[in-house]
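Worked example 4.2. Below are the chains of a multi-component assembly; read each line carefully before continuing.
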Amino acid sequence: MRELLELLERDHTLTVDQLSVMLGRPQAELAAMIRQYEDDKVIVKYQTIVNWEKAGVDRVTAIIDVKITPQREVGFDSIAERIYRFPEVRSLYLMSGAYDLMVMIEGKTLKEVAQFVSTKLSTIEGVISTTTHFMLKQYKEAGVILEDVEEDRRLVVSP
Amino acid sequence: MSWADRVSPVVRAIPPSGIRRFFDIVAETKGVVSLGVGEPDFVTPWHIRESCVYGLQKGYTAYTSNYGLLELREEIAKNVATAYGVNYDPRQEALVTVGVSEALDLAMRAILSPGDEVLVPEPCYVSYKACVSLAGGVPVPVVTRMENEFRVTAAQLEELVTPRTKALLIGYPNNPTGAIMTRSELEAVAAFAEKHDLIVISDEIYASLTYEGVHTCFAALPGMRDRTILLNGFSKAYAMTGWRIGYALSNPDFIAAMTKIHQFTMLCAPITAQIAAVEALRHGQCNMQKMVEEYNRRRRLMVEGFRKIGLKCFEPKGAFYIFPSIKETGLNSLAFAEELLKAEKVALVPGDAFGQSGEGFVRCSYASSTANLSEALTRIGRFVGTRI
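Applying the procedure described above to all two chains together yields the following structure tokens:
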């Protein structure tokens, strides 16, 4: 149910009780639906978005454009799998256009990320070239503006 | 003689806004969770704001036609035809105004002669009776009741109609009650209007915020199009309250009369808001739907919340207000609101700000985040628990 998924995506801390009232559906029905979605991996994970810079933890993030040669029978999938199995890889997408894969890597330092690219990523069979871009500032992540000040500027009482 | 004594008697006779008085009290209190806000908590969607910014960059800063940009009138006519099945000629039957507030004022001044009566179902929006009085008319309140979900009936209207009655002013979905009226209920009112040859001013600013069934546009009822002055706008559906933009649709004679006043007093609605309104109508439906779905979820939370608190309340099916009765606490509306504010720092609006028939009720707006609403309900529950 689209509305249920959208609500959970926005705020996964909503309880079944709250969801039941907001959607006007019985609790048991919603609980079963959520369980089914989790089993089917429609709901993949419940995640917390952290502003690490604010937390005082230094991190380096890079986006790497990777060109690869697709392999016989499996296309891009098996190379993609070899890449995304690395825990350093935060996101991986197959793209149309000038390059094939967009890989987002996270590490503690610039050197660490650069080393990952040169020793682990570029060396994979099938990888033709990589272009590394380092992230300078994060404005918005997964639909959430990081530094949005939600100020209610309305008059406190109005007709 | 003081300066106050030299103010027009008509103005002096209008009672001060109950909202204003309560606002001053609330403004003094810190850390208030307010359920007293009569405007959306959403900021105007970015694409609408951006279209205004772009218009300014391109240099659109001059007056528009008194009637409003033709482009906007055409979009309005198209929108109303698609949504409600009523056709208006954008050139002669549409007027873009500075909010529905101005449209209401124009309508009254255009049709009323001194002493003309206007039937006004109550509880009602704070401006209705004042606008009738300011235009020289006599507002005749028609009391609606919670037992009938604050809907007005032909029978009630028949009791109060006189040979001096010129018009009927209705607003559904309703502020402050959240009431709606079904097609068949409105047909009965239409029959009454026809029987007594009345003009109907229908304020449908909350039309898009209908949660059960479909909104019935009064002008769409058989025989009503020409005798109705249909008012609507962008404030609630597109979160454009501060932009001050609305419109009136009616027969060419009424629109011409309203435009005559408008051209002398306002000249035109702000071009910035008009440009933004075009964008809202062309591309704003998706965002509007999302906002309506969010309001509906909050509405259910409020209904359930008040049911648990134990205050009598009918289920509102429109707008973003819930209007519970607080009679069981033994307090009157103002005392309830003031004591709740003092004890729990929750602001809501005393029902008598919307007419005498609002006494014994309070208006709670759910144009606020789910977190705020839950917190407010907890605090209200605590307060009511000590009083019942």
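Take a moment to check your reading of the output against the notes. The beta strands of chain A are 60-68, 89-94, 101-107, 127-134, 140-141, 144-145. Residues 12 and 48 of chain A are 9 Å apart (CA to CA).
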